[in-house]
C-alpha cells in the first residue's frame, strides 16, 4: 500500500538515499534496519512528508503523495524523542490531531481517553507530560499517533530512549497493538534484535542503499551479502579450506566429537548464554551456546567443535 | 587558554589606557555655560590671559540641580550666562562666592549684585519668531505684539516653553506681569495660552521646532533667532510693540572653586572693555558696559521698546510666579 | 526535549572550584556584593533618602498626597507603557516570524535594520522622525501633503513603539528559534496546518520569551522621559514630570519621591514573574525550519518587515545625509565641515566615550557572569533580593540614577574621577541585562560537562577556561555589546556626571540638538552609530575566530 519508487535524496553533495524502491503491504510491520547514517530515518522523513526527495515518487494506495505536505498525509509518526508538546497535558497531546481537524472538545476528550486506555494509560489524561515516566511518555506518543487511525504508522527509533527491560516490554506491546488493530507500520531501528523480534519483514540498509528485504528468518539465515551477515548475525571472517567465509557465533558448536580442535582463549558469561573465544589455526573464532548447555573446560584447555555452515 | 590569555591581556591593556582619561587634566578654569556664541569669546579670553578654559553647556536649571545634589560642592569654577533667577537662588543658598570686580564701577548698579555674588554682562531680549513658509501656507500675518498672539487664527501655532525650565520664558512671563500688573498680566497670558498647543519641556525647543516648520510662531530669545538665521534658516522676527521683555546674562564664581583666581580673572575680563567688545563681536546679546559699539542688529534690539523692569525683583519672585503658573497652565 | 530538562534550580549547573570553592566563592561574593552596595544601593538609597529631606530636616511632605495628586500621571504612565507593549509585541512578533520562517534572502538586511534601530543616538532619532513625519515632515507634509499633529499620547506611543520594535523583535527571534523543530514536525504530522502549528505549538512555546521581551519594553517605556518631553506636548508621564520637577521646578524631595511611584510597581511586576522565564536568550542564527508557512502569509510578514527596514533607511539615511549637508532643508550642498569639526574639536570627548563604554561593557559582562554563577548556587530568597537590586538602576529614569552618583560622590572626602563615575553608572545601569544573558548562558552548561573536564584531569581553572568561558562567550558578547552601545549613546544618567573638562560624545550630540544644529548633531550621531557598528563587527569577528581556533 505504501510504496517508494526510485527515491533519491541529496544533501548537497552527499547522497543520503540512492534510488530506493520499497513496498509495504497492508497490515504488516516492516522494519528499516541499518547502522546510523544508513538513510533509514531519511526514508521515514520522506514517507512522513518532512523531506522532499530529489527524485522519485511515493505512493499510498496507488495515489501519488510525493509532494503532499505532512499535515495532509494520512500517515502519523512516533518520533525518536517522542516530541510531546510540553505545554499540553497528556490528553491534550493525544487529542491534538482531532482538535486541529475541528473535532468538538467533548469528542476529543472521549477519544483521547479511549486511546490512552488502549495503550495502558487510563486515568492519565490530565497529567502534565513532564510528570510521566519515559515509558509513559512513549505510550502517549503512540496514542497521539494512533488516535488518527493512520493508514501508515511511522515509528522512528521509538524505543531508543528507554531502558533495556522496558524496551523489550514496549516492543511486545507495540507488536500486539499493531496485530490486533491491523495497522500498517514502517518501523526504523538500528537494533537488530528489536528488528528481528518485532517485524513481519525487515529491510536492511547501508549507506543510502537497500540491500535486502525479507522475513526476519530470511535475512538472518540467508543474508544477501557479507554486510548483512555481519550486521545481523555478528558474523566474523574465517579462512576455511583456503576460502574466506563469514561465520556466525551460533554456527560454531562445541561438541566432544567435533571435527575441529582449538584452544579456549577466553569466555564471556552473558547470563542465559555464554560466548567462547576459541583459537584455531592462528584465527580467533567465537562460539555461543546456552549457559545451561555449557561444559566448563579450564581456560587454555583444548576444545573440539563443529562449524555448521 | 588562548581566550583566557587574551581576556587578561585586554584587561591589563585597559588599565594602562585608563589613567590618561581617569585623571582629567585640570589646568585653567572650568565653567558651566548657557550662552550662545561662547567659543570665540573664550578663545579670546585665553589669548588675552593665558588661562585655559574647559566648559560644559548646561541650562541654569540643570546647574542649580547639580550643585544642590552635590550639596554645594563646587562642580566648576565659574558660571557664565543663564537665567538670573537661578543665580539669585544659588546666591541665597550659599553656592556662590562674593567677588567685587574693580571693573564694575563702570556699570549701572541695577546690573549687578551689591555683595558681588553675580554681575550682569549682557542684555538679551525676548522676541517673536515666525517661520515664513508656514505662515504663508496658512495665510497668517506675522504677529507684532503680545496682543497679536491671542488672535484666534493662531490657534496651535504658538510655541512656548514652560517657564520652569527656561529662563527666557520665565523672563517673558515675569516681565509681562511686572509691567501690566498681576491681574491684566495673567489675563493676557491666559488668552495667549489658548493658542499654545503645549508648553515645551526644554528651553531651546520652540525656536528649533519653528525653524523646521513644526509650528508658525515661537517666543524666542533674540540671540537664538539671529543664530538660526546665520545658520541659513529663513525666519521672521518682530519686537513686540507692546513691550520687549529683557533679561541679563550674569557671570559668577562658585564657592569652593578649584581655581578661584582664574574664575575671578574671567569675571574681570568679561566686564572689561576688551571683554565687552569681544561679546559685541561674537554674540547677539547687547553688552551692558556703556560706550561699547554694537552691531546694527543688536543696536536695533537695544533701541526697541524694552520694558521697564526690575530684573532682580523678577529673580526673587520666581517661586511664587511658577506656582501660580503651574496652577493655571501646568497641565499642558 | 525541552519538557524533560531539569529546571536549573534543581541541579546546580556548576560548582566551579569544587570542594575548595568556599574561599574563592566567598571572595567573589564579597567583591560583587561590595560593587552592588557601592554603585547601586548607595546611590539609589541616596536619591530615596533625599525625598525625606525638606530644607535639611526630616519631612514627609514630599509624600503627602504623592499618590492622590499624581493619580492621573500614574494612570497615564501605565497606560502608555501598556499601550507601547501592546503595540510593540505584535509588530515585533511579525518581524521575528519573518526572520525565523521567511526566506533566507534579505534576512541579514532585516536583522541589520533591527540592530541599527537599537543603536539610536539620543534625541537625534526623535528629531529625524519629526523632520520626516512631523507637522511639516518631509513625508507627511511635503510628499503626502497632509498635516497632522504628532504631539500628544499618540505621538509618544508611536515613537516609543518604533524605537522598541528592534530590541523586542531580536529577543522574540531568539525565543522562536529555541522552539524545538521536532515539535513542529510532530504537529504537522498530526494533521495541523502550518498556521495551526504556529498558533498551537510554536507561539505558545515561545510565550515565555515573548513575556520577557514584553516586560523589557514595558519597563523601558515606563522610565523613558526623553520621548514624552520631546513629542508629548501636553501629555506627560511620571518619568518626564519627575525630570521637570527636578530640573525646572527644582523641588528635589518631590522629584526623588516620584521615583518611588515608578520603582515600586515595576519591581512588583518583575517579582511576579517566575524565574524560569529568564533563560530565554540564545544567540546564534536560526536553523532551517521544516514548518513551511503559506506564501501569502509570508508575503504579509514581509510587507511589515520591509516597511520597518524602509523606515530605518529613511531615518538613518536622513541622519547620514544631514551630517554631510550644509543645512538640511535649506542648503543641500555637500560639506565635510560637520564631520571634520568632530575630529578636530571633539576628539577628546570621543576618546573618553569609547574608553568609558569599553570599561562599562567589559565590566558589566564579567560581573554579569560572576553574579549569574554565584546566584546559581544561592538560596531562592538571596537570588530574588540580588536580582531586584540589580534591576533597580534599570527601573528608574536615568537622570535620577545619575543624581544618585552625584549625591554619593560629592559626599566623599576625596575626588572621584568623572570618567570612573560615568563608566560605573553605565556598567551598573545595564547590569540587569548582562546578568540575564549570563544566566541564560550558564543554564546551557550541562553539569556533567564540568565533571568530564575534572575527570580528564583539568583543574578548576581549566573548567573556567575550557568550558565555562567558551560556552558563555556568545552570551558575554551579547551583554558586552548591549552595555557598550547603551553607554555610547546614553545621556540621562551622565548629564550630571560629565564636567567641563571631561565631556563625552553623547553630551556633545545633546548640545548640538539643543542648539538646533542638525548638521553637527547628525555628524556626531553618524559617528556614534559607525563606532558602535564597528565594535559590534569586531566583537562578532573576534568570537567567531576564537571558536574556530578552539577546535582541535
Could you describe the 3D structure shown?
The complex is a heterotrimer of chains A (309), B (332) and C (552). Chain A has 309 residues and is an alpha+beta fold. Chain A has helices spanning 40-48, 90-99, 105-118, 134-146, 164-181, 192-198, 216-221, 226-233, and strands spanning 2-11, 14-24, 29-33, 55-60, 63-64, 75-78, 152-156, 184-189, 201-206, 209-214, 236-240, 243-247, 252-254, 260-269, 273-280, 283-290, 302-307. Chain A folds into two domains: 2-227, Rossmann fold, CATH 3.40.50; 234-307, Beta Barrel (OB fold (Dihydrolipoamide Acetyltransferase, E2P)), CATH 2.40.50.140. In chain A, the strands form four sheets. A six-stranded mixed beta sheet of chain A has the order 6-7-8-3-9-10, with helices on both faces. Chain A has a five-stranded antiparallel beta sheet with strand order 13-17-14-15-16, with no helix packed on it. Chain B folds into two domains: 27-123 and 247-302, Periplasmic binding protein-like II (D-Maltodextrin-Binding Protein, domain 2), CATH 3.40.190; 125-245 and 316-329, 3-Layer(aba) Sandwich (D-Maltodextrin-Binding Protein, domain 2), CATH 3.40.190.10. In chain B, strands 1, 2, 3, 4, 5, 6, 7, 8, 9, 10 and 11 form an eleven-stranded mixed beta sheet that branches. In chain B, helix 2 links the parallel strand 1 and strand 2 (53-57). The longest helix of chain B has 21 residues, at 2-22. Chain C has two domains: 19-50 and 347-552, MetI-like (MetI-like fold, Orthogonal Bundle), CATH 1.10.3720.10; 69-321, MetI-like fold. In chain C, strands 1-2 form a two-stranded antiparallel ribbon. A two-stranded antiparallel ribbon of chain C has the order 3-4. Chain C starts with 20 loop residues before the first helix and ends with a helix. Chains in contact: A-C, B-C. Chains A and C meet through strand 6 and helix 2 of A and helix 8 and helix 9 of C.
Amino acid at each position: 500500500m505504501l510504496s517508494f519508487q526510485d527515491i533519491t535524496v541529496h544533501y548537497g553533495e552527499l547522497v543520503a538515499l540512492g534510488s530506493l524502491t520499497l513496498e509495504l503491504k497492508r497490515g504488516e510491520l516492516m522494519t528499516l534496519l541499518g547502522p546510523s547514517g544508513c538513510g533509514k530515518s531519511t526514508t521515514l522523513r520522506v514517507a512522513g512528508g518532512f523531506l522532499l526527495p530529489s527524485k522519485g515518487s511515493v505512493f499510498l494506495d496507488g495515489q501519488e503523495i510525493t509532494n503532499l505536505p505532512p499535515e495532509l498525509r494520512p500517515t502519523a509518526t512516533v518520533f525518536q524523542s517522542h516530541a510531546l508538546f510540553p505545554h499540553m497535558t497528556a490528553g491534550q497531546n493525544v487529542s491534538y490531531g482531532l482538535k486541529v481537524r475541528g473535532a468538538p472538545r467533548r469528542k476529543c476528550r472521549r477519544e483521547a481517553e479511549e486511546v490512552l486506555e488502549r495503550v495502558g494509560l487510563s486515568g492519565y489524561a490530565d497529567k502534565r507530560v513532564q510528570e510521566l515516566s519515559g515509558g509513559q511518555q512513549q505510550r502517549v506518543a503512540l496514542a497521539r499517533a494512533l488516535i488518527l487511525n493512520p493508514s501508515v504508522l511511522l515509528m522512528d527509533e521509538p524505543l531508543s530512549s528507554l531502558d533495556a527491560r522496558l524496551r523489550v516490554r514496549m516492543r511486545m506491546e507495540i507488536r500486539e497493538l499493531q496485530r490486533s488493530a491491523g495497522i500498517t507500520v514502517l518501523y526504523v531501528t538500528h537494533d537488530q534484535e528489536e528488528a528481528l523480534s518485532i517485524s513481519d519483514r525487515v529491510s536492511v540498509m547501508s549507506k543510502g542503499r537497500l540491500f535486502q528485504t525479507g522475513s526476519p528468518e530470511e535475512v538472518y539465515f540467508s543474508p544477501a551479502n557479507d554486510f548483512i551477515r555481519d550486521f545481523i548475525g555478528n558474523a566474523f571472517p574465517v579462512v576455511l579450506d583456503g576460502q574466506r567465509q563469514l561465520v556466525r557465533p551460533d554456527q560454531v558448536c562445541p561438541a566432544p566429537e567435533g571435527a575441529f580442535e582449538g584452544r579456549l582463549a577466553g569466555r564471556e558469561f552473558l547470563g542465559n548464554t555464554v560466548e567462547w573465544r576459541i583459537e584455531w589455526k592462528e584465527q580467533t573464532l567465537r562460539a555461543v551456546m546456552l549457559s545451561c548447555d555449557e561444559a566448563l573446560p579450564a581456560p587454555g584447555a583444548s576444545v573440539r567443535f563443529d562449524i555448521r555452515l | 587558554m588562548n581566550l583566557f590569555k587574551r581576556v587578561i591581556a585586554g584587561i591589563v591593556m585597559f588599565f594602562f589606557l585608563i589613567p590618561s582619561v581617569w585623571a582629567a587634566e585640570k589646568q585653567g578654569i572650568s565653567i558651566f555655560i548657557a550662552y550662545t556664541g561662547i567659543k570665540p569669546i573664550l578663545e579670546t579670553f585665553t589669548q588675552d590671559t593665558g588661562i585655559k578654559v574647559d566648559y560644559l553647556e548646561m541650562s541654569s536649571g540643570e546647574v542649580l540641580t547639580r550643585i544642590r545634589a552635590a550639596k554645594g560642592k563646587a562642580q566648576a569654577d565659574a558660571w557664565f550666562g543663564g537665567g538670573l533667577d537661578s543665580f539669585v537662588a544659588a546666591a541665597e543658598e550659599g553656592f556662590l562666592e562674593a567677588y567685587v570686580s574693580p571693573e564694575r564701577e563702570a556699570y549701572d548698579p541695577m546690573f549687578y549684585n551689591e555683595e558681588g555674588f553675580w554681575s550682569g554682562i549682557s542684555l538679551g531680549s525676548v522676541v517673536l519668531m515666525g517661520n515664513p513658509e508656514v505662515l504663508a501656507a496658512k495665510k497668517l500675518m506675522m504677529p507684532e505684539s503680545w496682543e497679536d498672539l491671542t488672535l484666534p487664527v493662531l490657534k496651535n501655532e504658538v510655541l512656548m516653553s514652560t517657564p520652569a525650565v527656561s529662563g527666557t520664558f520665565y523672563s517673558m512671563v515675569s516681565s509681562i506681569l511686572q509691567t501690566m500688573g498681576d491681574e491684566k498680566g495673567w489675563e493676557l497670558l491666559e488668552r495667549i495660552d489658548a493658542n499654545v498647543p503645549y508648553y515645551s519641556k526644554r528651553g531651546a525647543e520652540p525656536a528649533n521646532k519653528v525653524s523646521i516648520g513644526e509650528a508658525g510662531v515661537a517666543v524666542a530669545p533674540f540671540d537664538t533667532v539671529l543664530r538660526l538665521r546665520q545658520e541659513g534658516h529663513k525666519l521672521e522676527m518682530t519686537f513686540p510693540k507692546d513691550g520687549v521683555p529683557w533679561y541679563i546674562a550674569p557671570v559668577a564664581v562658585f564657592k569652593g572653586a578649584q581655581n578661584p583666581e582664574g574664575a575671578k580673572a574671567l569675571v574681570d575680563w568679561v566686564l572689561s572693555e576688551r571683554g565687552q567688545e569681544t561679546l559685541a563681536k561674537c554674540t547677539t546679546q547687547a553688552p551692558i558696559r556703556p560706550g561699547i559699539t554694537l552691531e546694527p542688529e543688536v543696536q536695533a534690539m537695544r533701541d526697541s521698546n524694552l520694558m521697564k523692569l526690575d530684573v532682580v525683583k523678577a529673580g526673587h519672585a520666581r517661586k511664587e510666579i511658577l506656582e501660580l503658573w503651574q496652577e493655571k497652565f501646568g497641565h499642558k | 526535549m525541552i519538557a524533560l530538562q531539569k529546571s536549573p534550580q534543581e541541579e546546580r549547573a556548576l560548582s566551579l572550584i569544587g570542594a575548595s570553592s568556599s574561599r574563592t566563592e566567598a571572595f567573589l561574593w564579597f567583591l560583587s556584593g561590595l560593587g552592588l552596595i557601592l554603585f547601586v544601593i548607595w546611590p539609589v538609597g541616596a536619591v530615596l533618602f533625599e525625598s525625606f529631606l525638606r530644607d535639611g530636616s526630616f519631612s514627609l511632605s514630599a509624600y503627602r498626597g504623592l499618590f492622590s495628586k499624581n493619580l492621573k500621571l500614574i494612570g497615564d504612565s501605565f497606560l502608555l507603557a501598556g499601550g507601547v507593549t501592546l503595540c510593540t509585541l505584535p509588530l515585533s512578533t511579525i518581524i521575528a516570524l519573518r526572520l525565523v520562517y521567511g526566506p533566507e534572502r534579505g534576512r541579514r538586511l532585516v536583522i541589520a535594520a533591527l540592530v541599527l534601530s537599537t543603536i539610536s543616538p539620543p534625541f537625534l532619532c526623535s528629531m529625524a522622525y519629526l523632520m520626516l513625519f512631523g507637522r511639516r515632515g518631509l513625508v507627511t507634509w511635503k510628499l503626502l501633503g497632509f498635516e497632522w499633529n504628532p504631539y500628544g499620547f499618540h505621538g509618544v506611543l508611536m515613537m516609543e513603539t518604533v524605537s522598541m520594535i528592534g530590541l523586542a523583535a531580536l529577543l522574540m527571534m531568539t525565543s522562536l528559534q529555541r522552539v524545538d523543530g521536532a515539535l513542529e514536525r510532530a504537529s504537522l504530522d498530526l494533521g495541523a496546518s502550518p498556521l495551526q502549528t504556529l498558533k498551537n505549538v510554536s507561539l505558545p512555546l515561545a510565550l515565555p520569551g515573548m513575556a520577557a521581551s514584553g516586560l523589557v519594553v514595558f519597563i523601558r517605556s515606563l522610565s523613558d522621559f526623553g520621548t514624552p518631553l520631546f513629542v508629548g506636548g501636553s501629555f506627560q508621564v511620571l518619568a518626564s514630570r519627575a525630570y521637570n520637577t527636578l530640573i525646572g521646578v527644582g523641588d528635589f524631595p518631590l522629584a526623588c519621591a516620584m521615583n518611588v511611584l515608578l520603582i515600586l510597581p515595576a519591581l512588583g511586576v518583575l517579582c511576579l514573574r517566575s524565574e524560569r522565564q529568564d533563560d530565554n536568550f540564545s544567540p546564534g542564527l536560526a536553523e532551517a525550519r521544516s514548518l513551511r508557512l503559506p506564501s501569502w502569509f509570508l508575503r504579509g510578514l514581509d510587507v511589515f518587515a520591509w516597511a520597518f527596514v524602509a523606515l530605518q533607511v529613511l531615518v538613518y539615511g536622513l541622519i547620514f545625509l544631514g551630517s554631510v549637508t550644509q543645512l538640511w532643508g535649506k542648503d543641500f550642498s555637500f560639506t565635510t565641515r560637520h564631520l571634520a569639526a568632530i575630529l578636530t574639536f571633539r576628539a577628546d570627548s570621543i576618546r573618553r566615550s569609547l574608553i568609558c563604554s569599553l570599561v562599562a561593557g567589559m565590566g558589566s559582562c564579567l560581573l554579569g557572569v560572576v553574579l549569574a554563577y554565584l546566584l546559581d548556587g544561592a538560596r531562592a530568597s538571596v537570588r530574588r533580593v540580588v536580582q531586584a537590586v540589580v534591576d533597580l538602576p534599570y527601573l528608574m529614569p536615568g537622570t535620577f540614577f545619575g543624581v544618585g552618583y552625584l549625591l554619593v560622590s560629592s559626599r566623599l572626602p576625596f575626588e572621584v574621577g568623572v570618567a570612573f563615575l560615568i563608566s560605573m553608572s553605565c556598567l551598573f545601569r545595564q547590569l540587569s541585562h548582562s546578568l540575564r544573558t549570563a544566566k541564560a548562558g550558564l543554564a546551557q552548561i550541562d553539569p556533567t560537562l564540568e565533571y568530564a573536564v575534572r575527570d580528564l584531569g583539568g583543574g578548576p581553572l581549566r573548567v573556567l577556561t575550557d568550558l565555562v568561558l567558551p560556552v558563555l562567550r556568545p552570551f558575554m558578547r551579547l551583554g558586552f555589546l548591549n552595555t557598550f552601545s547603551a553607554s555610547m549613546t546614553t545621556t540621562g544618567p551622565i548629564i550630571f556626571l560629565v564636567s567641563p573638562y571631561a565631556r563625552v560624545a553623547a553630551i556633545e550630540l545633546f548640545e548640538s540638538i539643543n542648539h538646533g544644529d542638525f548638521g553637527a548633531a547628525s555628524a556626531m550621531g553618524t559617528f556614534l552609530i559607525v563606532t558602535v557598528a564597528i565594535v559590534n563587527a569586531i566583537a562578532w569577528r573576534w568570537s567567531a575566530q576564537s571558536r574556530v581556533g578552539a577546535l582541535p
